């Protein structure tokens, strides 16, 4: 029986609200055993870009990470947010260690190839991206790695990388050494059958049930890529994926996804 | 015979000049054995503060780190500069790991007490500040720690901390486990007898000779606090302190300070 490793991913919404962030971190402290936190960005970087008069570069509705944008997102994600989270966890006795993918070469990405759109300095991950040996060593030393959404290409270039992708790639890579629970935390209590009814949380969804719910149109829109990604992680060996409210991680309400 | 550990400190001048920074890092890669790099700030943070219209807070000629300033210096030091240095070293095969003092609780500071001046969010270090157990573990794992000049107070507060102080505190704390060589790198070739003559480098200074050179006024002004600090480190068990040009670390020209 492998040791359980819990990987939590939080998004920009909670990063932007310091009291919510502090509440979440206080709840995270109560989670026992080895754990990893992956945090997304938040609006701070965009606000800074606009204060500096740097126009967001958009192509076909997608934001492009040009060099000036990369500089600012690196400052926010790897500097401000990551160090704030680490310091707040240290204050509560969690031995947090902030990491970008470049630190310890822990996540090696490749710059997204230009097809129809040049996304700029954006990193894609693959099966070989994660330095599992070092991560396992850090976890065994009692450290709690805190990942920001910045990786590198191994050639000296930092890359902006989707935090959901980082979380699921870490989960898949570490599934060989741990029974991994991957927790996607957001502002809803779980996967809802009715988007307007917070009490309609589906407690448990298997891969088979997911296909049926998708076919019926019960699960649609924004949840589909998230859940496709989650079931792909389960297929790749991740033990459990949980979709839950970032403010209720220690409460029973949540959606647990499992293979069967 | 203890293993040799080399600690390098570079200042803001070289951080501000990317081609010089790359050159220094290329030379650092050639330094064998366990090593640590401590980097200072550079002008980026001040320029950003002025672009954002945040006035530098000065009291009696000393800069005050208020909350807005701390935010920006954390972004620059721990975010932009630290991650850039880490990524550039990774590209040359050095397994660099960027750290603030909060990461792994590796440097615990105390907020400078208010006497006549309130310096704001500035951290002071002491004999107990360094988590030597974790640092030794990281070094033994083949990692090269890269420190920025940000620490924390263990209560959730990040603190701006002098990079020279971080370097000498690390050196003193690790002197129990390693024969520590502490390298202060700057824009001169070493300690000069004539500030205007770059060829007047004193190759070696003992504690006794230093007192004489100070008394004669040969060493004066800005070098005195730097060298007082260096000789204090030697007295506390650091094996060697070297004062050298950041661009000539692999050349023989330098000043070696030693107890006797």
Beta-strand portion of chain A reads 15-25%
Main interface: chain pair and counts: A-B, 38 and 38 residues
Number of domains of chain A: 1
Instruction: State the assembly state of the protein chains.
Output: homodimer
What do we call the CATH topology of chain A?
Answer: Carbamate kinase
Unreliable stretches of chain A? none
Keywords (chains A, B): Amino-acid biosynthesis, Arginine biosynthesis, ATP-binding, Cytoplasm, Kinase, Nucleotide-binding, Transferase
EC number (chains A, B): 2.7.2.8
Site (Transition state stabilizer) (chains A, B): 9, 226
Protein name (chains A, B): Acetylglutamate kinase
Q: How is this structure best described in words?
A:
Two copies of one chain form a homodimer. Chain A has 260 residues and is α/β, with parallel strands linked by helices. The first copy, chain A, has one domain (4-258): Carbamate kinase, CATH 3.40.1160. Chain A has helices spanning 12-15, 18-29, 44-51, 67-90, 132-140, 163-174, 207-215, 223-235, and strands spanning 4-10, 35-39, 57-59, 62-64, 96-99, 110-111, 123-124, 144-147, 150-152, 158-160, 179-186, 204-206, 240-245, 255-258. In chain A, the strands form four sheets. In chain A, strands 5-8-2-1-11-13-14-12 form an eight-stranded mixed β-sheet, sandwiched between helices. Chain A has a two-stranded antiparallel sheet with strand order 3-4. In chain A, strand 3 and strand 4 form a beta hairpin. The longest helix of chain A is centred in the N-terminal third of the chain and has 24 residues, at 67-90. Chain A is globular. Chain A binds chain B through residues 51-52, 71, 74-80, 82-84, 86-88, 90-91, 95-98, 100, 102-105, 134, 137, 141, 143, 150, 152, 154-158, and chain B through 51-52, 71, 74-80, 82-84, 86-88, 90-91, 95-98, 100, 102-105, 134, 137, 141, 143, 150, 152, 154-158.
